[in-house]
Amino acid sequence: MFPHLLLLLLAAKANAQKYWFSFGDSYTQTGFVTNGTEPAVGNPLGNPPYPGYTATGGQNWVDYVTTVDNTSLVLTYNLAYGGATISAELVTPYEPTVLSLTDQVNEFLDSYAFMREPLWESADTLFSVWIGINDIGNSYYLGGDRDAYADFFCDVGARNFLFVNVPPIDRSPLMLAQSTSAQALEKSVIEGFNSKLTVRVASLKANHSDVTTWIWDSNAAFTAILDDPTCYGFEDATTYGDAPDIFWGNNYHPSSYAHAYFGQDVAAVLGGFI
């Protein structure tokens, strides 16, 4: 085969159409519903209209990675739901209608898990989970069998996993209004949660040799910006509102402008997979 033709074929394969099933909470949600418009060329996130119903308005990291920070056509099924905990039976969400990670997985099972061959294939599909913020925020609880979810995904053909740890929400304006002891306790619990996540991701990889895993360290990404906000174009580490130089969109969620950095970070971690 001619060398230049081989390079073209390899480039075409690298940039082939990819699929993304995303799970999480308000840091990830775009308001997608399984009975709405499906993702397609020209509308890669399906429903609702872009950028969707995000926590602070505007694009979030899923929007950016799907439409900007990628090397492929990415069709994203974003099952994340605002307020989600790992399991509503373990940590009660703020409203009973909130879809926990358990509920989101069941939605995937009912709607997409058994459409693997006609819709998605193991090699070209990413599964991401960013969960734990509300588990910690609501009760400082570390429960939830994430191992069981990972095994389930493997059973239905998932092979590429992106996990995201919990950011330093102890530094959010909401928590800065609380006592220093509450902030210190939350920081300690976050560190424990993130440490366990790292161990479990390593275990998943060890137990499934055909699985590829990535971890986006959101905690480090947030910390880098909050420690030196002006270096990233933000006014400070505590103000919240809707302006290009504001990191926090409200007192608990980063702004769309912050999410632009997150999208770039995630794309770098994935190394061109999508």
UniProtKB/TrEMBL annotation:
GO terms assigned for molecular function: hydrolase activity, acting on ester bonds
Source lineage: Eukaryota, Fungi, Dikarya, Basidiomycota, Agaricomycotina
The keyword Signal is annotated on this UniProt entry: yes
Gene3D superfamilies registered for this protein in UniProt: SGNH hydrolase
Protein name: Carbohydrate esterase family 16 protein
Extent of the signal sequence: 1-16
Organism: Guyanagaster necrorhizus
Pfam families: Lipase_GDSL
Keywords associated with the record: Hydrolase, Signal
InterPro entries, A to Z: GDSL, GDSL_Est/Lipase, SGNH_hydro_sf
